[in-house]
Design goal:
214 residues; Immunoglobulin-like
């Protein structure tokens, strides 16, 4: 098996992760991909021939590996490709390290994907990261500006606002709306500040939730 040991690409670009195997595995071996993130969390990408729902629309399996149509810094980590022949006599694995780099300026909040379009009842990821000079105790707040112009705090002082707790989860890379609704469409403002309040920056992410086709 021949791996691409390390892939380094800018945020927002495509990425090919290569996993080649020799003919001893047969014409139709089982190929599974697993993602190990920077905090050592393990998540399936392809299992039993099925692409994980989380990657739908962003990843396609090719004969030589995986292609990400767009990658973001939270995709950085180790991808493990495990190959097994149909008779189970041959198996092997390789790992590919993906490093996604984004532009940085001093004390900046960064939205790698400032316009998000999803179908209703699908998850929506709102990506917001910050440059490292904010320090380890950075403060992050999220505000939702609805289509009618009214505003809601979503995440404030380290806590998800109660009305959003069941539907939205905070991650180090941003927010995930578990099952987006049309009324979730609007502008989400990510506000980042240093612990002493001396530096502050913010970015806006526009979410457009479309009604699912019946």
């Amino acid at each position: 098996m021949t791996p691409t040991s390390q892939v380094q690409v800018p945020s927002g670009s495509y990425a090919d992760l290569t996993c080649l195997y020799n003919p001893v595995f047969g014409a139709s071996p089982s190929v599974e991909w697993t993602f190990i993130d920077r905090s050592f969390g393990v998540n399936p990408v392809i299992r039993q021939g099925q692409l994980s729902r989380y990657y739908e629309g962003r990843v396609v399996q090719l004969k030589k590996g995986l292609r990400f149509f767009r990658v973001f810094p939270y995709d950085s980590g180790t991808y493990r490709c495990a190959v097994r022949s149909q008779d189970g006599k041959h198996h092997g694995e390789v790992t590919v390290d993906l490093d996604v780099q984004g532009p940085n300026r001093p004390f900046s909040a960064i939205a790698d994907n400032p316009k998000v379009n999803v179908w209703s009842r699908m998850p929506a990821d709102l990506l917001c990261r910050h440059s490292p000079d904010f320090g380890p105790d950075v403060q992050v707040e999220w505000k939702f500006i609805k289509q009618d112009g009214t505003q809601d705090m979503v995440y404030f002082e380290g806590q998800m606002i109660e009305k959003y707790q069941k539907r939205i989860k905070k991650f180090p890379w941003g927010l995930r709306i578990n099952a987006a609704r049309v009324r979730d469409s609007g502008i989400y403002k990510c506000i980042v500040s240093s612990q002493d309040g001396s530096h502050l920056d913010e970015v806006e992410i526009t979410l457009n939730v479309r009604r699912s086709r019946r």
